Structures are given as C-alpha cells and as structure tokens.
Amino acid sequence: MFEINERGTSRSTTNYAMFCGSDDNRPVDLSKRDDLRESMKKYGFITAFPLHTRRQESGRLEVRDGQHRLGIAQELGINVWYTIGDDDIDVGRLHDTSRRWTALDYTLTYIKKGNRNYAEILEFSQKYGISLIRSAALLSGSFTQSNATKLFTSGMTVCNHASNAIDVAETYLAICNLGHNVKRSSLLAAIFACSCVPEFNHNRLRHAATRCRDKLRAYATKEEYIRMLEAIYNYGHGIRIALECLAENAMRARNLAVKKGRMSL
Fold first, then answer.
1. Cα–Cα distance between 74 and 31 in angstroms, integer?
2. Pairing between strand 11-13 and 80-84?
3. Could you say which architecture CATH assigns to the domain 11-97?
4. What gap in Å lies between CA 79 and CA 60, rounded to an integer?
5. What whole-number distance in Å separates Cα of residue 52 and Cα of residue 166?
6. What is the Cα–Cα distance from 225 to 205, expressed in whole angstroms?
7. Cα–chain-centroid distance for residue 46?
8. How far is CA 171 from each of CA 60, 176, 192, rounded to the nearest angstrom?
9. How confident is the model over 167-191, as pLDDT tens digits?
10. Which of 215, 250, 251, 249 is nearest to 232 (CA)?
C-alpha cells in the first residue's frame, strides 16, 4: 500500500475555516492592504505563491506565511492555494524579502506570544512619545542602537532598567517642553549618557533648565548636547561636575561590559 504524502503539494480550496493564524505572525490588518486587494481582484490568487502552512494536532492548517492573502481571498470568495510543510520557518526573517516588519509588528507579535517585556516597551513608548526601539534601549539599559535593535527583533529585550529609563524620559520631556527646537534623538542619547554618571542628579538638571532656557539649543550630535547639558547642570552651582568627561568614561565602561557579557541587557 502506498502512503500519500501531503507535504509540499500545492492545492486549492474555498474552505477557509480549515486554516488558523500563527502567533509568530504580525496581526492581520486588511484595511491597509488595498494594493493587494486590487491585485487579487484582477489576477485572483496567484498559484505560484501559495500559502505556507503547517498541520496542527487539531487537524487545522496554521498559516505561517500568507495570512493577508488568505483574508482577502475570503473577502472575495476565491480559491486559496496552499502547501503543507513541517519546517519551522522564521516568519520575521522570511518577510525581510518582502515588506519589512516594523517595530510595531515585532512588538505586537511578541506581546501576543505572552512576552510581558514588549507590553512594557509599548506602554513606555506611548506614554513618553519615544520610538519603540529607543524605548527598548532605555528599558534594557543600553543605548547602543545596534545592540538594542538586535535584541529587540529577536524577542530578547529584557526591561531590567525601568527606573533609570523613566528618569531619562521624564528629563527628556521636561527639557523638550522648555525648548521645542531641542527635541532630537541625540538629546535623548545625551541624557542617557549623563544618567550613567553616578554623581548625576536628574532633578538638578531639570531645575537648572527652567532657570536658563536661553542655553537650550538644537544640536546635531550627542556630544554637543552633553556639552550643553553640562553648562546647564552647573549653572548657579559652586560645585561643578565635568559631565562631558564623566559621561564619556561611563559609556565607554558600560559598552565594554556589554561586549564582555558582564552586563545583563
């Protein structure tokens, strides 16, 4: 007797109920896929690009790739073409070849999978108006963009520096509210660098900024902003703190610790 192998064979159906979504996929939002809808109205479901599915214990087919095409095909009432595989594909990397996943796509996907760190990142981002990647960098205690992005997209960001992240964000918003033209990511990076200095006090900087708004300027680099923050921080104080030098040394030590794996991110 021959055993029928369903793997890899392309077939079609209008039984949409036989499919189910995957927690690894970004949420489906058909309202933003008018281009795909018009294409499928004109050409139908292109057989050369079937859904990639995997058989579940329940018997239903988990859609690993093609959930938007499935949703629109159901809207239009047309046949869906699909294949069944048993390979465990990385959906995020697969979509690197089409429309790249956004930071929000990754965030919602990991939240859906039960990762509370990403729920915290989303809440922090929405509260302070800071991008998801930068929020993740602050909450994980590292503002090294490449490190933060790599951890973020792999689902490994751990929010173990929330207290400092909140202080940095509060100081950033306070200064931006005093001088709207200073709102830059390089200012946020500068405040984070200063926060790594043990002697640094956020309340002192916020208070000093209210007394010398004329010193608030827009700059292009983190280093220029640190020099501005140092001038403001020391305004009216007999004890001056060399923030620029101390922040540079603190960041160098922190980045070295990260590279050597001695600091938890």
1. 14
2. antiparallel
3. Alpha-Beta Complex (3.90)
4. 17
5. 42
6. 13
7. 32
8. 51, 9, 10
9. 999 999 999 999 878 999 999 999 9
10. 215
CB neighbours (10 Å) of residue 13?
A: 14
- Say how far apart CA 192 and CA 145 lie, in whole Å: 13
How many Å apart are CA 31 and CA 37, to the nearest integer? 10
Segment 56-108, tens digit of pLDDT: 889 899 998 889 999 999 999 999 999 988 766 555 555 554 567 888 888 98
Dihedral angle over CA of 178, 183, 185, 191, nearest 10: -10
- DSSP codes, 97-156: GSSPPPHHHHHHHHHHTT-HHHHHHHHHHHHHT--HHHHHHHHHT---HHHHHHHHHTT-
Other CB atoms within 10 Å distance of the CB of residue 39: 14
In sequence order, the 6+-apart residues with CB closer than 8 A to the CB of 14 are 77, 78, 79, 80
State both tokens at 75: 């809207």
Mean pLDDT score across all residues of the chain: 85
Please, which pLDDT band fits residue 151 given cuts at 50, 70 and 90?
confident
Q: Match 């909140």 to its residue by tokens.
A: 166
User: What residue spans define the domains of the chain?
Assistant: 11-97, 103-153, 162-259
